[in-house]
Design goal:
By secondary structure, this protein is an all-alpha fold. It contains eight helices and two strands. A hairpin with a 5-residue loop joins strand 1 and strand 2. The longest helix has 31 residues.
């Protein structure tokens, strides 16, 4: 039997504040907040105040609310956070995002309203697997956590949509789709696999044993590299536009 693994490569040792760290999924939260920055920086002169407000809204809704709801729905991370606090985090995170969005409507305009409505619906539909799980798919994940934040951030800056953010949304969709394609088998290995056995036989007659770590390593190295790439790409755009 393989050694029992943590539920995620970035998971901290269980207990106390460390459970909240794990619950935030730091690399993935940073990755998807990068789309917010990228969307804003597709505008020639982004408004820093609007960008910070949009980042706060998405951190509250996705980093806190969506991840708390996901943990409440089946405890995939195995944290000891009480269910009542997960409910508070879910409701509080989504409410915070809606309030920020509602306050921004006065400055941005009604073009932001569809995003304010759709955001919480996507979070609940995806993480609670509503509507027969139609949103809880690879494509649903890519649209909700990739395309949506980029488009919303652009609209928060410009009050409209143009070709550039639509093309950017396609790129964000593809990157998030790749994330899901890598993370799904990685989660299965960490959370639902008891043991792995077998070997790879080379043409020269040598054999390499197969273990869980062997299968996980390329998946999680790619996920880590992609998360850092997204963050630094977003930072480079922010420096170029705001520096």
């Amino acid at each position: 039997m393989d050694e029992e693994l943590s539920p995620a490569y970035y998971a901290a040792r269980g207990g106390g504040w460390r459970d909240w760290w794990t619950l935030l999924h730091p690399p993935y939260t940073a990755w998807h907040l990068s789309y917010v920055v990228i969307g804003a920086c597709l505008v020639p002169r982004p408004n820093l105040g609007r960008l910070l407000a949009t980042l706060l809204a998405f951190f509250a809704a996705v980093g806190v609310g969506a991840h708390a709801l996901d943990e409440l729905h089946g405890r995939p991370l195995g944290t000891s956070v009480a269910s009542v606090w997960l409910v508070v985090a879910t409701v509080g995170g989504l409410l915070c995002a809606v309030v920020i969005g509602a306050l921004a409507v006065a400055e941005v305009g009604l073009s932001l309203v569809p995003f304010i409505v759709a955001g919480p619906l996507l979070v609940v539909a995806y993480n609670a697997e509503l509507f027969g799980g139609i949103v809880h798919t690879d494509a649903g994940f890519a649209a909700a956590w990739g395309s949506f934040p980029l488009l919303c951030s652009y609209v928060a800056q410009s009050s409209t949509l143009r070709t550039a953010p639509l093309l950017g949304a396609v790129a964000a969709f593809a990157l998030s789709y790749a994330q899901r394609a890598l993370s799904t088998p990685a989660r299965a290995l960490r959370r639902r696999t008891q043991s792995v056995s077998g070997s790879i036989r080379r043409r020269d007659g040598s054999e390499d044993p197969i273990a869980t770590a062997t299968l996980l390593a390329p998946l999680e190295r790619a996920l880590s590299a992609l998360s850092w790439a997204a963050v630094f790409f977003a930072c480079s755009l922010a420096v170029a536009r705001l520096g």
